Amino acid sequence: MRMSGAAPATPAAGRPTDAERVRSILVAAHSMTVVTDGLRSEVRHLDGADPMGRLHLHPAEPGGDGEHRPSIRLEFTDIAPTPVRDRVRARVTILGRLLTPYTDEGAGSTCMEFGRAVLETAQGRSYVGIEELDAACPDPLAPFEAGMLTHLLDDHAELVTLLLRLVRPLPAGAILRVLPLAMDRYGITLRLEQRRGHRDVRLPFPSPLDDVEQSGVQIQALFSAARRSSHRNSLPA
User: Fold this and answer.
1) Which residues of the chain are under the pLDDT cut of 50?
2) Global pTM?
3) Taking the C-alpha atoms of 130, 132, 137 and 139 in order, what is their torsion angle to the nearest 10 degrees?
4) Which of 74, 89, 148, 236 is the most exposed place for a label (fewest CB within 10 A)?
5) CA-based R_g, the chain, Å
């Protein structure tokens, strides 16, 4: 577990860093929950615009009077766009104190003293500092991921099943459904649902994407590799 202020991490084995994951969740968010002055309000008009455009984060000043400033808590939930089991993929919480009054109406911006960002996933909880968050870039696919995954499932479900040929080894027992769970610049994650439980498998692209325009070529490369594979899937006929 990394604490706030730790040295920036690098992607491990073709995965986004925690800071990149947080930034990607923020840029794709359509709603958030704001808790301040003991009041909890739902903001549902983000429309995929990065909320950090309205909430300016400032580093905490050592020895400041932060304890006298109202606390603020921003909560984001990352939900899979496809009908998988357990659709919550991650939760992000940003904690801090208000430097200027907050309102969820109008186009005005709010300044807040950053405390920490908390990322919670199935793998556990991690903390991201402001330096890491500032240095990280959102995934280029983040604003488009939901549309890409639903299009893949709705219009090309047979290709999702085809990708099972790239999964080695397959889990023991029959696979009832295979669904696209996530996509980022490093690859596609499939959820293999079985009678009891599920397993998530990442299929890396041949190389990381720098732009959403590169996604078509990389996805087709995975399909081509699956067609060349002799691995047979185990979905029921």
Assistant:
1) 1-12, 236-237
2) 0.85
3) -110
4) 236
5) 20
Local structure of residue 178 (DSSP, 8 states): E
> How much is the pLDDT for 171?
82
Query: Using CA atoms, how far apart are residues 231 and 237, in angstroms rounded to an integer?
Result: 16
Peptide bond into 16 cis (omega under 30): no
How far apart (Å, rounded) are the C-alpha atoms in residues 188 and 200? 10
User: In sequence order, what are the beta bridge partners of 72?
Assistant: 36, 96
Asked: is 145-228 a CATH 3.20.180.10 domain? The reply is: yes
Q: How far apart are CA 212 and CA 39, in angstroms?
A: 39
Place of tokens 């766009």: 81
Sequence-ordered strand ranges (E) for 122-235? 124-128, 175-184, 187-194, 198-204
Segments making up each domain of the chain, as ranges: 18-135, 145-228
Count of C-beta atoms within a 10 Å radius of residue 189: 18
* pLDDT score recorded for residue 121: 96
Which pLDDT value is given to residue 11?
42
Structural domain 18-135, CATH architecture: Roll (2.30)
